[in-house]
Each structure stands twice: as structure tokens, then as C-alpha cells.
Design goal:
Transferase, Pyrimidine Nucleoside Phosphorylase, Chain A, domain 3; Pyrimidine Nucleoside Phosphorylase, Chain A, domain 2; four-stranded antiparallel sheet; about 45% helix; globular; binds uracil; 1,4-alpha-oligoglucan phosphorylase activity; thymidine phosphorylase activity; Thymidine phosphorylase
Amino acid sequence: MDPIDIITTKRDGGELSPEQIDWIIGAYANGDDTTPRVADEQMAALAMAILWRGMTRAELSGWTAAMLRSGKRLDFTGLERPTVDKHSTGGVGDAITVALTPTVVACGAAVPQLSGRGLGHTGGTLDKLESVPGWRSDLSPTEMRRVLEDVGGVVCAPGPELAPADRRLYALRDATATVDSLPLIASSVMSKKLAEGTGALVLDVKVGSGAFMPDTGSARELAQTMVDLGADHGVPTRALLTAMDTPLGYRVGNALEVAEAVEVLAGGGPADMVELTVTLGREMLAAAGMDGPAARDPAAALADGSAMDTWRRMVRAQGGDPMAPLPEARETTRILVPESGELTRLDARAVGEAARRLGAGRSTKEDSVSPGAGITLHAKPGDDVRAGSPLATLHADDPARFGPASEALAGAYEVGGKRRTFPLVVGKLG
Ligand code: URA
């Protein structure tokens, strides 16, 4: 097979054959000096052609199955507890996994989670958790199983044997403006989630300016596509559509978000994060068949300290110190509110982009992230603000980053405009 023929077929609007899909994914993920190798630039060209041309249902199904087959599929059927996981399609300030996983584990389910890194303007769970001193994301499948058996929850990077096609393609898409493609997002999420061996899955599909799917129609289509792919592979999958017009919580950036999620685990934290943690937790327990009369409720696990105890055990099991101070950026500066009134808009995508420019995310796939960089918001839409009061504090190691970040935030907020309210949970499927 010739990669150039495959790229040309998609570029010109044709349908890829199952053989072409199997070949290109296999060669890209596993090619070496002795077997066919597909270069990054060829896969980037194909990803751009897919972004423009889309994929048929048959192509998407074959592409996802080929991504899954590029590595191993874990099997946790022997475990005592039912397994269930949740995956977010990516948002700003979305550290829900950090609070949710220990909460659901404290309610009796097991959560095996393969997570990703920051993508575009959105954060990634692995980057966030790596801000906890000592915490390791690179577990082998054997270590993953041991942590799951001992503690009940594990969050780690897909190792070389799990979803290798997604690992390479995810980083490539981030650096080539090919993230916002429905088939590429659906196959990326579902190949990882199917590989991790979860028994049931809840998807948090984000909608709004800070999401990869800005409108409800396309988010619903993405959600339905992923629910169907889960069913195709025997994993009961349901999805919530949740608002991402403004960041979740008040902090955006790796260590900043972990600190806020730990506040949720301590029984406090911002109302939107608590609501989403409890809502997704209930969905996960229901998906795992653990919603009977004797079931534990996520809100109770947050209130009675059992979710916090589980968090500490999970962190220790992966080499981290849950009591160690989280890293802080060396420099801060503040953005002030220009006029008094009600804050009516604070755009999630602009805040995510500003956080990326501060060092919380990457510009090239080789970049490392700065764990303490990011933004603390002092107001959210609906709050009354006074002229000259702080709207946001920017955190960075290098003050040269403040200018580009402030530029990203210019025009991202409005005082006294038309108030728009978005319910947190916009829809439900599956
Ligand atoms: N999350 C993923 O795992 N993959 C994507 O492509 C987007 C969000």
C-alpha cells in the first residue's frame, strides 16, 4: 500500500477501504525499520484531509477498531468490583477526573483510567496529576492492575502497548490544528477507553466556546457516535452534554486545578465542580449497575471524607505525596476589571488559550508544561464586579509570557452585556 494514494483518496473526498485503514494505522503506530513506516507528515496530511472531508460511519468504525488493534486490550473481568470510567472530550479548568475518580471508587466501583495530555487550548489529566510531587503516570499493565486491585482506582498514560496509534496521533493533531474533527475525536477517545478494559463508560461531551464542538448539534452528534462505537464493542456507554462556555471552577492550569479539585474532595470547592462531580458520579455508578437502594451516593462520599481518603491512597499508590505542597509559578500579575457591573461573559476558549501561553499547555508536541502556570479567576459570569478590582491573576515562570496571555484575554470578557445563562448539564444520551 502507498500512503500517498491513501491521502489522495481522502483529500479528493473518497471513502477509504477497510484494508487501507488497517494498513495505515498499523504502519503509523507500529512501523519500524523492518516493517512499513508512515511518516508524521503523511499522517498529518491525512488527518487534515479527514478534518475537511469527514468519515463515513463504516470508515469511522474501521478506523476506531484499527486504532484499538494497534495495541493490547486490557481485561479486568476477574476483578471483584464492577469497572466503570468517564472521559471528557476536553474543556478548560476541567479537573473533574481528579475529584471524580476517588469519589466513585469510595462508592464501591473500580475505575481504570487511561488519560491524555493537554490538547490545544484544553488541559489534560496527566499533565495535571504530574504536578503532584512524585506521581507517576507511566505504569505497566501489570502495575495498573495491581493499583486497581489494591486501591480501586488508577489513572495512567497508555503505555507503548495500549492504543499506540492514539498516542502518536493525539500529539501530532495537537501540533497540526487537526484536533477539532468529529471522527478523529470519537476514534481517539473510544480507542483509549476500549483499550483500558472498562466494563462501562460515561462520556462528558463538552459544548460551547471552550469545547471542540461549539454547538449543541455537533456535540450531540459526537456523543451519539461515541455511544454507538461503545455499543459496537460491547461496552455500555452513556453520555452527558455539559456546558463549556466559561471555565469550570475558578482555576485553570495544572497544579492550580489539582488544588481546586482537592478542595472538592475536602467537601468544599466551587459549586459547578461539585455539581458535575456528583452528577457524573451518579451516572457512572448507574452505568456500572451500582444504583440500587443500598448504593452509596457520591455527595455522601465527598461529605464524609471517604473520597479524600481514597484520593490519598490513589496518589501514594502511584508514587506521589498527597501532603506535599503543589508547585507554584515564580511570577504573578493581575488583570483588572475596567468598569463596574455584572460580569456577563468570560470565554472559556480564550482563558484556555491564555493559560496555554502562560506555560500550562504546549505549542509543539515536544514542549513540556510548567506545573504552576495558569490563571486564577476572581469572578465568573453572574458575579457583580467593581472597576479596578482583580478579574484574574496570571501565573507564569517567565514574565515575558504575561503579554501574549493578556492579549488572548482581551475581548474575552464583558461587563454589563446581555446576560446569558447556560445550564451545566445540557443533555443526556445512552
Ligand atoms: N480527548 C481525547 O482523548 N481525544 C481527542 O481527540 C479529544 C479529546
